[in-house]
Write a structure and sequence with these properties.
Layout: H1 3-11, H2 13-22, E1 42-50, E2 53-61, H3 62-66, H4 75-88, H5 91-94, E3 103-111, H6 124-129, E4 142-151, E5 159-161, H7 163-168, E6 174-181, E7 184-191, E8 196-198
């Protein structure tokens, strides 16, 4: 399922190296093998279009989507997590894919410690046992959403509009995008004021 996106980090490695020369953020996201650092307000989107298959992988600090990164224990926090999950389960609306492209969701996968996918942040025994400098790894909860679409008319995918992500999750200030399509590869950054990019 992830064959297209697995090549993306390697294909865009020169762009990542160039970007890293300009950025001096400490990488808190090393356990996920992603090219970007965990930075509040900043999400990452990997996109690959191969024939009729479109894959999108959104990675974001939980802070951007729900307003916190700890395990939800209060009813209010649980409601915020549930609401974010409902929004993430509507990728056709979230990514504003043009109806002319005829894209249908083939599969979607959501992962986050907040969804109960990994050990709880308050699992002190695990944290105590991990003395090699990774005690803080639960402090930076991420939400990962992976979508695969089958598009009947992929030529109609001229742009990818991320405005709904910024509207739905206003704490997201910018999204670093890595895109591979028939027209080549690109790495760019979008904001709420300039939320569209060309395939």
């Amino acid at each position: 399922m992830r064959r297209l996106l697995l090549v993306l980090p390697f294909a865009l490695l020169p762009l990542a190296i160039a970007h890293a020369a300009d950025e001096h953020d400490h990488d808190h996201d090393h356990e996920h093998g992603s090219l970007g650092a965990h930075e509040h307000g900043v999400g990452r989107l990997n996109a690959a279009l191969d024939g009729q298959t479109l894959e999108l992988e959104l990675e974001s600090p939980a802070m951007n989507l729900v307003g916190f990164e700890h395990v939800a224990t209060s009813d209010a926090d649980k409601a915020k997590v549930a609401a974010a999950r409902v929004q993430l389960e509507k990728p056709l609306a979230l990514f504003s894919l043009p109806s002319a492209a005829g894209c249908k969701v083939v599969s979607q996968e959501l992962e986050s410690p907040l969804f109960g996918d990994k050990p709880d942040a308050d699992d002190h025994d695990a944290d105590e046992a991990d003395k090699d400098g990774h005690e803080h790894h639960h402090d930076h909860s991420e939400i990962h959403a992976h979508y695969q679409f089958s598009c009947a008319t992929p030529g109609a995918l001229k742009t990818l509009d991320l405005a709904n992500i910024f509207n739905t999750f206003p704490a997201t200030q910018k999204i670093q995008v890595q895109l591979i399509s028939a027209s080549g590869q690109q790495g760019t950054e979008v904001t709420a004021k300039a939320a569209a990019l060309k395939f």
